[in-house]
Automatic annotation (TrEMBL):
It holds the Pfam family NUDIX. The lineage of its organism: Eukaryota, Fungi, Dikarya, Ascomycota, Pezizomycotina. Keywords: FAD, Flavoprotein, Oxidoreductase. This is Nudix hydrolase domain-containing protein. Gene3D superfamilies: 3.40.30.20, D-Amino Acid Oxidase, subunit A, domain 2, FAD/NAD(P)-binding domain, Nucleoside Triphosphate Pyrophosphohydrolase. Belongs to the PheA/TfdB FAD monooxygenase family.
Length: 803
């Protein structure tokens, strides 16, 4: 009976897809089993084109410099075509940049797949010592659907059979996938009658563009020339279209060489050395299913095959593994539910189908049967550049890709696509860097705060609010931080400002953007950037590149695989709304249109506490000395003496601005600007007041809505108390006593704007009533606010929140 080995993840095949996923797992420290049929590492790969997006991925894993140093850089494409004289000669018809300027900071390069795999293998060893097990021939796969390791894989090595049990299996075992066949899945698509040959060789020729990427369309056939890495070696790849009626299995090396000479008939061409060659019929197919019970997943050539001319095969396969790897790691680490893996199928199956459709178009463009003129061919080639650079993949909506309809905030950030990059200047050392270099493939999500021009007071207010939230205990940075990890261990905050960086000092930036991290627990100053001119006089114009208005800014959430989505910059950042108050959460223009009688809107937020005054420890009564709970106190602010109604008292609030997204946004913004507190929940509408405002030519009616609100700062220090909908958790009573573990002291950290308010107090119901009824009362209010405040106390009493 064969022995059995258990593993979290078993990867069948060590091609691009399998190694990319395995590198992610190794980065997380998760060991896996990689079974490869070959007796050892690949020595000569068939794929060689490394598109811009793939180079970005290598850069994010820390392998980019080595890749770029060893590879041939494709910078220009030369187009040649028949001269139209009937002589069979070809002439250069045009030139173009291989990658359109601005698409990516990374180039399109050429490097043998064996070396690409080698870079992955070296990275895996570095991360967690992961190795590949060679000589294994996978025989069968079963999903048993029960137990911790529900997938059974049978494999054989040196005539000895062994069973493997895994939680998840990745089928990355190529176009003739054993796993796919064992599952009974089929490849859907067709094969054309077009046959192409390919050979890697060293040519001796007087053709002038031999060290450029070249497309040649002639009466004798079509030829695509791709220079290979190694300047001293002059290795070059030829893709040659063979005559109609040719069968791939009948093709000989001499046939490819002669076809090349026919196409380049006016030039001398000798083939001094041929390293590898092959012939193939063009086919475009994809698997009918990409998974089995979300336990076995197909990737790479196991689920999509196509022609090699567009240089997509290795790249799309590698990106399959890149998409799957971090998701598997999140699930296995307990950071996400298994349902996250469903998004692999949703996202990559669509990419595979798009690839097949593009390959049909691109193959037809190259074919002699195509009727495109040289000019039309070049135009089609250039227009396809964004796709061939790997920058068009767009993932549909899912739990991790949500389009909030905010494309106006960042016109060039497309939800579900990789976040574009441009040069920025790092604040701490003035070093110009590409923004994308901050997106390390280390498993972290990013909160990218594009704060805009911080010389605009509203932007600075928003940034302070967002920074306060990100630095608080309620922040997702704290909620999801890894055990024993720093605050940025799972979610990393990054700030990108706009304009002269020297106008902003570090102390003006919220500390959440330079957290204390690492073994030595020092400030990490490398998360703050500015869209500014560098000392070398270059300017990345990132905001313009991304379509972000520096007057407003935007927040972008970036997945571990660099796909992003945008959020509106807002001082509220995070609050919830009681269901019966949803009518106030509609867009502000909609709310205004529904209330046409009012020319102006004002909002207020009333904040209560039971622990504001240390001596409020309750009053003993009764024979057993029981304590009554301390009284509720309401936060009041005293208006500056030089202001209208100077010296009077009010709750936080003020006019709603046209920039406020909703009426509630305006209330939350005013509470933060006037008191430095962040609204966490709108609980109840206390009242609505109206008054007339006399103008020279009219009378405007003003409406003020006052809400009972909770704030983030009042979160209990120890969780565990019940938290009913609509109640104030920081002030709630438990059998007549204050909730244990309530965080004290937040009430005294009120931050006033001295231009508007000179003092604050936490005031009891009786003190407010005295201010209303007694001329000697301290807490005088105005415009009917005193009555609204007393109504709020009555509301608390009716909701059983007061004894």
């Amino acid at each position: 009976m064969p022995s059995t080995t258990q593993t979290d993840v078993l990867i069948c095949g060590s091609g691009s897809a399998g190694l990319s996923a395995a590198t992610w797992l190794a980065r997380y420290g998760i060991p896996c089993k990689i079974l490869e049929r070959r007796p050892g590492p690949m020595t000569m790969g068939q794929a060689d084109g490394v598109q811009c997006r793939t180079v970005e991925i290598f850069e994010s894993f820390g392998m980019g410099e080595e890749l770029l140093r060893e590879a041939y850089h494709v910078l220009e494409v030369a187009f040649w075509a028949d001269d139209g004289t009937g002589s069979g000669r070809v002439v250069r018809s045009g030139r173009a940049a291989d990658v359109q300027p601005g698409l990516s900071h990374c180039p399109h390069v050429i490097l043998n797949q064996a070396r690409i795999n080698g870079l992955f293998i070296e990275a895996m060893r570095k991360f967690n010592g992961q190795e590949i097990e060679y000589g294994w021939d996978v025989k069968g796969v079963q999903v048993l659907g029960e137990g911790e390791y529900p997938v059974k894989v049978t494999a054989e090595k040196a005539g000895k059979e062994q069973s493997f049990e895994a939680k998840y299996v990745l089928a990355c075992d190529g176009a003739h996938s054993t796993v796919r066949k064992a599952l009974g899945y089929n490849m859907i698509g067709d094969s054309s009658d077009a046959v192409w040959g390919v050979m890697d060789m060293v040519p001796r020729t007087n053709f002038p563009d031999i060290r450029k990427k070249v497309s040649i369309r002639s009466k004798a056939g079509n030829l695509l020339i791709i220079p290979r890495e190694g300047e001293n070696r002059n290795l070059t790849r030829f893709y040659i279209e063979l005559p109609a009626g040719t069968r791939a299995k009948d093709v000989k090396l001499e046939d490819l060489q002669q076809a090349s000479r026919n196409i380049l008939s006016q030039y001398e061409v000798d083939f001094t050395e041929t390293v590898w060659w092959s012939a193939y019929a063009i086919g475009q197919r994809h698997a009918d299913f990409f998974h089995k019970d979300y336990r076995v997943f197909l990737g790479g050539d196991a689920c999509h095959t196509h022609s090699p001319k567009a240089g997509q095969g290795m790249n799309v396969s590698l990106q399959d593994g890149y998409n799957m790897g971090w998701k598997l790691a999140h699930v296995l680490k307990g950071l996400a539910p298994p349902s996250l893996l469903e998004t692999y199928v949703l996202e990559r199956q669509k990419v595979a189908i798009d690839l097949i459709n593009f390959d049909r178009y691109f193959s037809k463009l190259f074919s002699t049967k195509g009727n495109a003129s040289p000019e039309e061919f070049q135009e089609g080639f250039v227009k396809s550049g964004k796709y061939t650079a790997g920058l068009t993949a767009k993932y549909d909506e899912s739990p991790i890709t949500t389009d909030l309809g905010l494309s106006d905030l960042a016109k060039n950030i497309i939800v579900g696509m990789r976040l574009p990059s441009s040069q920025v200047v790092r604040h701490c050392d003035s070093k110009p860097v590409q923004l994308a270099t901050s997106f390390k493939s280390d498993g972290r999500w990013r909160v990218m705060v594009f704060a805009g021009d911080l010389g605009i007071p509203q932007n600075k207010t928003r940034l302070d609010a967002i920074g306060a939230y990100l630095g608080s205990n309620e922040s997702p940075l704290q909620t999801f931080r890894l055990n024993g990890g720093d605050s940025d261990s799972l979610i990393e905050p990054i700030l990108v400002g706009y304009g002269p960086r020297h106008n902003v000092e570090l102390e003006q930036i919220p500390p959440a953007f330079y957290p204390i991290t690492g073994k030595n627990q020092i400030k990490d100053l490398h998360k703050i950037f500015f869209d500014d001119e560098a000392y070398n006089k270059t300017h990345g114009h990132l905001y313009e590149h991304l379509g972000i208005n520096p007057q407003n800014g935007v927040i972008v959430i970036v997945r571990p695989d660099q796909s992003g989505k945008a959020f509106r910059m807002s001082s509220k950042f995070n609050y919830t709304v009681a269901p019966h108050l949803e009518e106030f959460a509609v867009p502000f223009p909609t709310f205004r249109a529904a209330n046409p009688n009012y020319a102006h809107f004002v909002g207020g937020g009333l904040i209560f506490s039971r622990t504001a005054v240390p001596e409020d420890q309750g009053i003993k009564n009764g024979a057993e000395g029981e304590k009554t709970p301390p009284p509720f106190r309401l936060l009041l602010l005293q208006r500056a003496f030089e202001d209208s109604y100077g010296g009077h008292w009010e709750g936080p609030g003020g006019s709603c601005d046209p920039e406020d997204e909703t009426l509630l946004d305006g209330v939350a913004r005013e509470v933060f600007e006037e008191a430095g507190l962040r609204v966490s929940r709108f609980v109840e509408l206390v009242g609505k007041d109206e008054w007339a405002k006399l103008r020279s030519d009219r009378v405007d009616i003003v409406a003020k809505y006052t809400f009972l609100v909770e704030v983030h700062e009042a979160k209990p220090a120890v969780s565990g108390g019940d938290h009913d909908e609509g109640r104030l958790p920081a002030n709630k009573l438990g059998n007549g006593t204050v909730v244990p573990g309530l965080e004290r002291g937040w009430e005294h950290r009120i931050k006033l704007d001295p231009a508007e308010h000179r003092a604050f107090e936490w005031v009891t119901e009786e003190e407010i009533r005295q201010g209303e009824e007694d001329s000697e009362g301290k807490f005088k209010s105005f415009a009917g606010q005193g009555k609204t405040m007393l109504d709020a106390f009555q509301m608390l009493r009716e909701r059983s929140l007061l004894a």
